């Protein structure tokens, strides 16, 4: 990857994270993937040096850096060979805490943030539901305030919740006003920062068997009158959708960085193999049928890199510059996620094809990268919904959904 144009802070982050990831070779990630074993040692290593708080306030124990630096951290992790499993082990700790840090009470922040940063607590993000998918404004999980007013009862189901098996906290989006009673579509959802207490009644979690990123659990989470204290509400009741958007744009930037790292890792493996593999008396990389697709993949990654770090800079600047429209940040972050995911898929597919039959072998890692590169194309929002968003919000075309 071309490093010209990055800030001193971003390059410092890259060097520091590289020193940590160097302690976790590809064999570590192969073993975690094949045995579906949580990379807890990796999470602990990042927590030990304070990196889980990279974009959180210094007064709460964080580094006080921005999403630009956090995106570089996530890219460096995936590019090291850790892939999406390494990124998914920690990224909710970075993006899901953004709305909490902005809207949480003093008590919530002092109790929760330091323990997330030091690794005592891991967290997960509870938004997606099986029957609503990307229709976030139609979420059905309910949070009903009990008669005493000091607690809520949670009932409903969440799906594709990463790290729920190992998380102590969940940032939860639930409905506090029935959808038919809301005055506007974005009203009626509330955000909570809740304990995942396996000993309390009303909570059940089931792992989902999946194609890639097997080291990190994905889950269905069921709530059945699960009781939470009223003081777990973050911000104002019924304003959760507006609050949680602050985490969603950050997540798109981080995921774009993760996709980039995966793509660059695959490309590095492919070029090394193309140089080393000799057929008919010459390295296969001398053939334009190999060289040109890899060169094309590199340029796609570099273009997506520019979009990704532009989006991250815009996100960071918007925190203090009110002249930057929220709409502009959303367009940039969604576009970056789309472009980086597509570029990563191109690079990973071509890496496997460059290896030929050995691309199918676990020991070369590129098969793992190809399995994992589908994640950024699907989550947290599909390619098609991003195209819908840009069509409508930028090109002013009629809404299609």
From TrEMBL:
Pfam family, one: Acyl-CoA_dh_M
Requisite cofactors: FAD
Domain Acyl-CoA oxidase/dehydrogenase middle: 124-225
Keyword rRNA processing: no
Entry GO terms, CC: plasma membrane
Keyword Oxidoreductase carried by entry: yes
Domain Acyl-CoA dehydrogenase/oxidase C-terminal: 238-393
Residue ranges constituting the Acyl-CoA dehydrogenase/oxidase N-terminal domain according to the UniProt record: 7-119
Annotated keywords: FAD, Flavoprotein, Oxidoreductase
Chain segments annotated as transmembrane: none
Domain of life: Eukaryota
Gene Ontology molecular function terms on file: acyl-CoA dehydrogenase activity; flavin adenine dinucleotide binding
Entry's family note: Belongs to the acyl-CoA dehydrogenase family.
The name this protein goes by in its record: Acyl-CoA dehydrogenase
Organism taxonomic ancestry: Eukaryota, Fungi, Dikarya, Ascomycota, Pezizomycotina
